[in-house]
Amino acid sequence: MAPVPNVTRADAAQAVRNPLAFIAERWTPAQRTVQRAALSAVVMMVVIVVTGGAVRLTGSGLGCPTWPKCTDQSLTATSEMGYHSAIEFGNRMLTYVLCAAVGWAIVAARSQKPWRRGLTRLGWTQFWLVMGNAILGGIVVLVGLNPYTVAAHFLLSTALLAVATVMWVRSREGDGEPRPLVGKAVRQLVWFLVTATTLLIMVGTVVTGSGPHAGDSSHVPRMPLDWETVSKAHAVLAWIVVTLTFALWFVLKAVDAPKGPLHRTRDLFLVLLSQGVIGYVQYFTDLPELLVGLHMLGSALVWVAVLRVLLSLRERPVEAADVPAQIDPHLSAVSP
């Protein structure tokens, strides 16, 4: 085994001033490690969307009635407060797990050789979005689960999931100039699909804000809209997204598109079908909590699948500069 290099006082000072650069000089992750780090942020983002839904569906939104502490007297939930506080506080603690996943993605991207600055920026964008959403989550509690702040909290989570998905896909590509794999008309169709999906998600937050699951057993104000009318508008948008996806698949087959866009479109269509079945069943069974939770999971998966379709329409080859130089196996560390 290679000897472990001594850490001098200068090394320690450098680690304090710029810990990421310090780590990058001494560690070169494999490409698969960077991809897994980026994927872990996507997975944790989906998990926290689902657990956030569980907080609302169990009526635990005000289980911890204040923020950043759980109560005015306690930083954490206590056994006397019941299971609602445990659920709400547990969801808050998952934010730290998400931060750890994003932090790992940032460190892995920064340590890759050569340094991929664009990938690292995507990691830092996730970090600041997590911080912003944590603050917004605190505001949601402080204003008593106002439905408009709850909707904004979910939409910011959706934006964070978008950045995490882009970083994951980019970690599997090179940094060469993007080359389109399909024509302009197909790309425009996909942008229509992305826009329709965005509207679908936004209207979904209105369904939530006007629906029966307010997030707490106490009186929580709802959006002054007819829930059934908004639900029908949501269903219409869902059918538009399904139709656009179906049309896209046929167009891709007609133009003999590469397998990447075809496979991503097929995956999206399957996720949409599953989501549609859950949506209609929950509507006709008076919104049971379990199905609503599955529908929230499906919403996150649909968004990831749509973004993967969009990003599959081009390729970014690995340039010569992207390929790290061969390292002498007898060296104990990577030279800065």
Describe the structure.
68% of the residues lie in helices and 1% in strands. It has helices at residues 9-17, 19-26, 31-57, 83-111, 117-142, 147-171, 184-210, 227-254, 259-284, 289-311; strands at 179-180, 314-315. With 336 residues, it is mostly helical.
The main sheet comes to: 2 strands, antiparallel
Helix percentage range? 55-70%
Distance between the termini: 21 Å
Overall 3D form: flat
User: What topology, given as strand order, has the largest sheet?
Assistant: 1-2
SS class: mainly alpha
How many E-type strands? Answer: 2
Uncertain parts: 325-336
**Overall mean pLDDT score?**
86
Quickly count the helices. Answer: 10
- What is the N-to-C order of secondary-structure elements (H for helix, E for strand)? HHHHHHEHHHHE
Q: Over the alpha carbons, how many angstroms does the gyration radius reach?
A: 23 Å
Percent strand equals: under 5%
Task: Throw out a few tags for this protein.
336 residues, mainly alpha, two-stranded antiparallel ribbon, 10 helices, 68% helix, 1% strand, disordered C terminus
